[in-house]
Amino acid sequence: MNPRSSDEDPVWIRYQQEFAQHYHEVFYASSPVIRAVQEAGHRMVEKPFAATTHCERILEVGAGAGEHIPHVRHTFGEYLVTDLNETILEQARQAHGHKPGLVFQVQDCRRLTLPDQSVDRVISIYNLEHIPEPFRALKEWTRVLKPGGILSIAIPTEGGIAWNLGRHLTTRRTFMKKGFDWDYIIARDHVNACSQLLAFIRHYFSDRKESWFPLGVPSHHLNLICAITIRVP
Fold it and tell me: Are 220 and 157 in contact (CB under 8 A)?
């Protein structure tokens, strides 16, 4: 593409159009190794909850095709399954729409239409790395949480040595074969490194617990996933 062109890059347009088609296939169905890494974050954010715990109203932002729903350990009254991508949200509806308590809504996680202090838990799995000015999203998620509510976040260790190597050996090869310049796509789509996101989270939230996969030591270079459980005041 000529960078002087005022038109959007056709590779990026194609990726946006085909993202929903490829997401579950590549990240959850293509390889047991990739699936294990992806599911680690889902499991980690659920560890603080027991089957006897009840959260009346849950909001999941950027829920994608609903991959997190089967991992939820506690009971709930209403579970708002939201995503900005209507196509991938419809996949979630088709897979999980029969389950009681689930409500599917198109929502921009940076500008939620929910009232202040209206949910008991907010779940974000692999979203913050994509969001420009992520501190604004964190403030928005905190706005809708009730006092004492829980914010559950999982992020990949974007920018870390282990993550970069793993991507080079797995998903990069897959998407390059599909005709995508994956380095370019990642540069546009993953705008925040793990270390930057943790700096925001650690600045805003003192009542938090971090966990790391697979080694457990607090290093974004040695691990692949970081999960954070936050209780808001």
Answer: yes
> Domain locations in the chain?
10-231
Q: Evaluate whether 150 touches 229 at the Cβ level (below 8 Å).
A: yes
133: left (phi over 0), alpha (psi -120 to 50) or beta: left
CA-CA distance, 169 to 16, in Å (whole number)?
23
> 46-68, pLDDT tens digit by residue?
999 999 999 999 999 999 999 99
pTM for the complete prediction? Answer: 0.94
Instruction: Spell out the alpha helix ranges (H) of the chain.
Output: 10-24, 32-46, 86-96, 134-144, 161-169, 171-177, 182-189, 194-204
Residue ranges of the chain with per-residue pLDDT less than 70: 1-6
Cβ atoms of 171 and 182 within 8 Å: the answer is yes
Category of 75 on φ-ψ map: left (φ > 0), alpha (ψ -120 to 50) or beta = beta
Q: Which fold has domain 10-231?
A: Rossmann fold (3.40.50)
The bridge status of strand 225-231 relative to strand 145-156 is antiparallel
